[in-house]
Amino acid sequence: MSHSLSIKVGQKSIAGAKPDNEDYLGVYIPSEDTDDAIQLDSKGITVAIADGMSGSDGGKEASQVSVRQFIDDYYGTPESWTVKQAATKILSALNTWLYSQGQEKYGTAKGMVTTFSAMVLKSQTAHLFHVGDSRIYRLRGKDLVQMTRDHRVWITNDRDYLSRAIGIDTHLEIDYRASSAQEGDIYLFTTDGIHDFVSDKEIHEILNLNISDPQKAAEQLVKAAKNNDSNDNITAQVVKVEHLPEPDKTEFYEQLTQLPFPPDLKAGNILDGYKILRELNASSRSQVYLAEDTLSKKTKGQHRKVVIKTPSVNFEDDPSYIDLFLHEEWVAKRLSSPHLIKVCGADRKRTFLYTVVEYVEGQSLKQWMADNPKPSLTQVRGTIDQIARGLRAMHRLEMIHQDLKPDNILLDKFNTLKIIDFGSTKIAGLAEIKSVVEHNAIVGTANYSAPEYFKGESGTNRSDIYSLGVIAYEMLTGHLPYGEISPQRASKKKFHYTSARQYNPMVPEWMDVCLQKAVNPNPEKRYALLSEFVADFSKPNQSLLERNASQPLIERNPLAFWRGLALIQLIIILVLLYLYAK
Question: Is the pLDDT of residue 160 over 80?
Fold first, then answer.
């Protein structure tokens, strides 16, 4: 039997010897029995503790705001974001707000300052975030380990100050650590009112004595600090990992296949209110149909048209295929851009497994390129700009398309381009979740895929930029920058760039240099951002031209170098033959 992620929590916080308690703690566990259940898998469990800095006028408010806002805002971030990205963005925003509020309310950089330590337990990983001198310990078996380091500078034996805290400066440096969690692990969160007065040995003993009762452990730690004459607020939070998600493969497969595959569809068939008009495409992996949504409101006397994609019965017993089929719809639902295909069909219950997307009346970019073999530079720039806008919407959510090609780009009747097919999309947030369904490395069409994929490396946003550069090159020249690439031999391919000007002299030199950088075989030498590529593709980048001109010919144009060398060798041979003949 599989288990969902679950923990047991104990916590205790008192003012201690001080008149006011400036410590604050919080925990949020999405419930399995509510609509939040999906967040338990996609976001995990959040635990946080904060200690308002002594001498800070608004320390109490700072600690409370930090814990509350961190937990609230974390669950509002996109599911596609990694835990690290989501948490660091939230903490950076919190730091800016606390700093500005401290200046505005109290006229000092020490107005609203707090330490902060948090854990996000997602799938089987504990993600730790830390600023200041509150602490996180982990007890695993008999070993107690301090997982954070104190950001505290000692001036003398009895005088010290915080070197890092939230709200003390405009710049925030956050310690981040990710470690594998195990069932039975105990994580202890403390403020300095505990760990400055209770030794690690005593902490170890208290946790061991109360291994099954986190609440009693927290209370005993607070009591021990008080007995040891703690002169500060005293706060302890004890978290025991009860269960980690380890879904049984059979159960997971049953969940994926709870809807049956639809039968072969013919014109006139009705599927959950969708009337099939005709088949648009069929392959060994799926069928695509044009359909009329008979449940939609009529516009100009007609129901809206949609596209339905159904899985092939050839893969009815393939959990990996089914997982990827569902993955494509999951991605599409979370994207919003006029240059990305929109998913439909959320307004009704389905009786079969299929996906529904908007119908784009037009043609693929591949067909448009065949019909327009010599587009103007303006047309090409406009096309690349639109595709980049769609990709940028994906990259902001830490999604990498991974299969960008002219076949996967549609052009509607208003000349708006839309990227389709998210089956190969890499999602950073999902990569953190352990899945029982294993997939082989997903690589798009060889001619448009970045070389790093063929080496077994993971794709990045630079991989999508490579694919976009290949499309731009092909539109301008009718050729590919490295010729046709066989998937079987791609890993051994020698990537020598052929100047676009060789095929199309109308391509400006500055644009050719831009393309060469975009499709560089080495991802580190490519554009890091889509905006940089689009900017250089729209107007000359003089510094890029100068850098390219300063490179040896063998680096900036290897093909021209070797052709030139071969020509020189031929001339030498001919001269020698001529002299020998005399």
Answer: no
